[in-house]
Amino acid sequence: xxxxxxxxxxxxxxxxxxxxxxxxxxxxxxxxxxxxxxxxxxxxxxxxxxxxxxxxxxxxxxxxxxxxxxxxxxxxxxxxxxxxxxxxxxxxxxxxxxxxxxxxxxxxxxxxxxxxxxxxxxxxxxxxxxxxxxxxxxxxxxxxxxxxxxxxxxxxxxxxxxxxxxxxxxxxxxxxxxxxxxxxxxx
Length: 187
Hints:
Layout: E1 2-7, E2 11-27, E3 32-36, E4 48-51, E5 55-71, E6 74-76, E7 79-98, E8 102-107, E9 113-119, E10 122-141, E11 144-155, E12 160-172, E13 180-186
Parallel strand pairs: 3-8
Antiparallel strand pairs: 1-2, 2-5, 3-4, 5-7, 6-7, 7-10, 8-9, 10-11, 11-12, 12-13
């Protein structure tokens, strides 16, 4: 990830740009996976499983852009405010590939195949956009602080719009930041 902090006259701007890649390749020696319900050398239940499900590749790439603007603290009367605003965008690109056809089944006690499933060779992919906007204000008076806020999230996979409340309160018992009691409500 790449982070950049910019100090403006009235606020601090933090921007993060990132990319991460996660991948996995599984290679089995066999293209058939089966379970025998009665075999003499199996586990304690008398079952044994053999084979594999072929070759499977999968990966996810996440591209991230985040920015947050923290305003400098300002005072109105005896109450100080320190608002912040932020936005995030994450694009996730996922794919999977089964390199060969494979199958699985169960051989029952009578020696017959049951629960037969065929996994066809093929590829699949999916791209998901996630958007987030949020804002909050840390409001302080003497040794008590409140932080109301709200967060909005949207993803295009299920077209979900979510609005989440944010609330935190904090009491600095001795007004020296050594003993704090904090409570919050967030979804």
